[in-house]
C-alpha cells in the first residue's frame, strides 16, 4: 500500500512538473571576449534566480552576425533567437519592417520606459511602437595617461577641442609622444558634429558639406598637419598601453580592456566638444522577434525585465562599465560605490543629459565605410575638405532621400 501511494505521488509530481515546466528561450548576443563572458554570467544569475524560465545564451560572433542570423531566421520563418542583442543603429531595420514585438504590451514595460534617461527613451521608441529595451549602452570617453599629462603640465583632461589642440602641443613637446588619436570613425564624428550644432543626416542627405561640419573637419585636419597627434587605427590600443600615446578615445566599456593591459595610472573624461557638449549613444538594445510564440515572448520579457532592474543594472555596470540606462540606477548605493572604485568612472553617465541616439537611417550602416575612407583622405593625404565632403554627400544622397 505504501509503495502504491509513493508511486501515485511520484506520478502526480511528474505530471505536475510537466505542467509547470520551465520555458526555455535562446538569447542571441554579439559581445565577445571578457564582455561576452560577463553576458553569460548575467544569464546564469538569472537562471539561478527563478524556476520559470531557462535562458540559453548563444554567441553569434558580433553585432553584425546577430542581425544576419535574425534576417536569415525571418526568411526561414524560424526566429534565430527569442531575445536579440541588436546594435543601436541596426535594430531599427527590423523594427521598421514590423519584425519585432511591441514591448509596450508587456507588463511593466512603460514603468521601466518612463524611468529611462531621455536619450534611451528616444532610442527605444519608433513611430509605430516600442520595440527595444536599452541594455548595454555606451558613449565615447577620452582616456588619459596621468603621468604623461603631468609631465607636460596638463592638469586635467581637456574639455574642448581648442583645449585639446593646446594640450597636444604641450604633450608632444614635453614627452615626444603623440597626444591623442584623431577621430576617424563615425561614432566620434557624430559627437564632433553634434557639439558644433550639426546632425550627420538631415534633409535627405549627409550634412558633411555644411558649414558647421566643414569647420569641425578643417580643425581636425589642421591638428593632424601640426604633427602632435596620431591617426586612428588598430595600433592605438597598444600605443596607449605602452605609454607611446598620451590620450585615446574609447567606449566606456573599453575600461574592461584597459584594466588588464595598462600598468600606469589613467583616468577618463567626457569627449571634447566645440560649442556645446554632445555625444551619441552606442552599444546595443534587447528585442524580441514578433514571430516568437506568445509564451516564449512572455518568458523573454521576464528575462529582459530582470536585467533592467536597478540591482541587476548595477551588477552589470560593475562588471562591464556600461552606462546606467535608468535614472533610478544612478541613485542606488551600489552605483555610487562603483563610481568611487576608479578614476573617471563618472565620465560616461555625465554625458547622458547631452546625448542623442545614433542615426537610425536604414542605409546609414552601408555608407559608414565611405565616411571613414573620406576622413582618412583628409588626414593622410590632405584632401580638400569642402570638395571631398561635397562629393561624398552628393554621391550618397539617393540613399537618404526619405530622411527628414
Note the overall shape: globular
Overall pLDDT? 94
Query: What proportion of the residues is helical, as a percent range?
Result: 40-55%
Tell me the count of domains. Answer: 2
Assess the beta-strand content as a share of residues: 15-25%
- Rg over CA atoms: 24 Å
- Counted by DSSP, the helix tally is 18
Low-confidence stretches: 1-13
Number of DSSP E strands = 13
Biggest beta sheet summary: 6 strands, mixed
| Oligomer status | single chain
Alpha-carbon distance between the termini?
A: 79 Å
Keywords: Signal, Sugar transport, Transport
Protein name: ABC-type sugar transport system, periplasmic component
Pfam family, one: SBP_bac_8
Signal peptide: 1-21
Could you characterize the architecture of this molecule?
The protein is 48% helix and 15% strand. It is α/β, with parallel strands linked by helices and 404 residues long. The chain folds into two domains: 23-137 and 282-356, Periplasmic binding protein-like II (D-Maltodextrin-Binding Protein, domain 2, 3-Layer(aba) Sandwich); 140-280 and 361-400, 3-Layer(aba) Sandwich (D-Maltodextrin-Binding Protein, domain 2). The strands form four sheets. Strands 1, 2, 3, 6, 12 and 13 form a six-stranded mixed β-sheet that branches. Helix 10 crosses helix 17 (364-381). The longest helix has 18 residues, at 2-19. Residues 1-13 have low confidence and may be disordered. InterPro entries: Bact_solute-bd_prot1, SBP. Residues 1-21 form the signal peptide. It holds the Pfam family SBP_bac_8.
Amino acid at each position: 500500500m505504501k509503495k502504491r501511494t509513493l508511486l501515485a505521488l511520484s506520478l502526480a509530481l511528474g505530471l505536475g512538473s510537466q505542467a509547470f515546466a520551465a520555458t526555455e528561450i535562446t538569447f542571441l548576443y554579439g559581445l565577445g571576449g571578457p564582455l561576452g563572458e560577463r553576458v553569460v554570467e548575467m544569464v546564469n544569475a538569472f537562471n539561478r534566480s527563478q524556476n520559470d524560465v531557462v535562458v540559453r545564451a548563444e554567441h553569434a560572433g558580433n553585432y553584425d552576425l546577430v542581425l544576419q542570423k535574425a534576417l536569415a531566421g525571418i526568411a526561414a520563418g524560424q526566429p534565430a533567437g527569442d531575445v536579440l542583442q541588436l546594435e543601436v543603429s541596426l535594430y531599427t531595420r527590423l523594427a521598421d519592417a514590423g519584425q519585432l514585438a511591441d514591448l509596450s504590451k508587456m507588463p511593466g514595460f512603460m514603468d521601466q520606459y518612463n524611468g529611462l534617461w531621455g536619450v534611451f527613451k528616444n532610442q527605444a521608441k519608433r513611430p509605430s511602437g516600442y520595440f527595444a529595451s536599452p541594455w548595454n549602452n555606451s558613449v565615447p570617453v577620452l582616456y588619459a595617461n596621468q603621468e604623461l599629462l603631468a609631465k607636460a603640465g596638463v592638469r586635467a583632461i581637456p574639455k574642448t577641442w581648442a583645449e585639446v589642440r593646446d594640450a597636444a602641443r604641450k604633450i608632444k613637446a614635453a614627452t615626444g609622444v603623440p597626444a591623442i588619436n584623431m577621430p576617424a570613425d563615425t561614432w566620434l564624428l557624430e559627437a564632433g558634429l553634434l557639439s558644433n550644432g550639426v546632425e550627420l543626416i538631415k534633409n535627405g542627405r549627409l550634412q558633411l558639406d555644411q558649414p558647421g561640419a566643414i569647420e569641425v573637419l578643417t580643425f581636425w585636419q589642421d591638428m593632424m598637419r601640426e604633427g602632435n597627434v596620431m591617426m586612428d587605427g588598430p595600433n592605438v590600443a597598444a600605443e596607449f598601453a605602452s605609454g607611446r600615446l598620451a590620450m585615446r578615445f574609447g567606449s566606456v566599456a573599453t575600461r574592461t580592456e584597459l584594466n588588464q593591459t595598462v600598468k600606469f595610472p589613467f583616468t577618463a573624461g567626457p569627449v571634447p566638444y566645440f560649442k556645446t557638449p554632445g555625444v551619441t549613444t552606442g552599444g546595443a538594445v534587447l528585442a524580441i522577434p514578433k514571430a516568437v510564440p506568445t509564451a516564449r515572448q512572455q518568458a523573454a520579457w521576464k528575462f529582459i525585465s530582470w536585467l533592467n532592474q536597478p540591482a541587476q543594472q548595477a551588477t552589470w555596470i560593475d562588471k562591464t562599465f556600461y552606462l546606467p540606462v535608468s535614472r533610478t540606477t544612478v541613485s542606488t548605493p551600489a552605483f555610487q560605490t562603483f563610481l568611487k572604485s576608479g578614476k573617471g568612472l563618472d565620465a560616461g553617465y555625465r554625458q547622458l543629459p547631452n546625448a542623442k541616439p545614433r542615426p537610425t537611417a536604414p542605409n546609414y550602416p552601408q555608407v559608414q565605410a565611405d565616411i571613414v575612407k573620406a576622413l582618412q583622405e583628409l588626414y593622410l593625404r590632405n584632401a580638400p575638405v569642402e570638395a571631398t565632403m561635397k562629393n561624398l554627400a552628393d554621391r550618397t544622397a539617393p540613399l537618404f532621400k526619405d530622411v527628414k
